[in-house]
Amino acid sequence: MNFFKTLVAGAATFVAAHTATFAPANADTVQEIVNRGVLNVAVQTQGPPFSFVDKHGERTGFAVEVVKLIAQDMGVEIEFQDYEWKGLIPSLLAEKVDFIAADMTPTPQRALQLVFTEPFYYSDVVAYVAGGSEAATWQDLNTEGVKIGVPQASSHVKFVRDNMPNATVVELSGGSPAVAQALSVGRVNAGVTSREIATQFTTEFEGVRVLDGTIVQSPLSFPVRPTDTHLESWLNNWFRIKKADRTIERMLDYWVHTDAWEVDHK
Hints:
Blueprint: H1 2-22, H2 29-36, E1 38-43, E2 52-53, E3 59-60, H3 62-74, E4 77-82, H4 85-93, E5 99-100, E6 115-116, E7 121-129, E8 147-151, H5 156-163, E9 168-172, H6 175-184, E10 190-194, H7 195-204, E11 209-210, E12 216-220, E13 223-224, H8 229-244, H9 247-257, H10 261-265
Parallel strand pairs: 1-4, 1-5, 8-9, 8-10
Antiparallel strand pairs: 2-3, 6-13, 7-10, 7-11, 7-12
């Protein structure tokens, strides 16, 4: 009996001494943001209407202005960190930022590493070509020898491979603007991006036009780290409130559904 008591006492001492070692971390990113007084957000300067630098030299766009409102409701300052598209997810996983504010699709592959908020918008993914192209619809691009440019590491890579398997995918660093530039100099025959961004390219690059048809509809969300359940919940709650009071609707009308933003920013 004495041996048994000694064994139990020893086990209790071991557990007490090592509880801190084996206990899971309980860090709350929301509280950390509030305590430091700064919200760190990863963005990409991909061009209007989601994230760009306007004529005043200020970063703006739909995603950027959403984050500014989020920071305001948190009562903190905001710091944007600009990355190439392929650097967005690594920056989040390395804890350099609190979340990513970009028009990112919550694909099953990305969801293996990240947790996504509820979609705040569904965007049409389309193809666009230069003036010399004879293509009328995106299906016309599904031909051997046709080179379709897409941002490196974007969900558009899969969209093209799944829906236009006969074409060749060309991944380009620098986001959608780099693809449009490659199209303008003949490096690729077409580009694929959201309808909103493609429409902007028709005004920035002579002869560029959007082909008929929607390749896919892509939900857009903000990702956080899998352990940041409070932050995920807070953001989802924020989006629900701002949809209910029509804030998101008004912002989409200004930035995405119309060209109203051009007077103030272009």
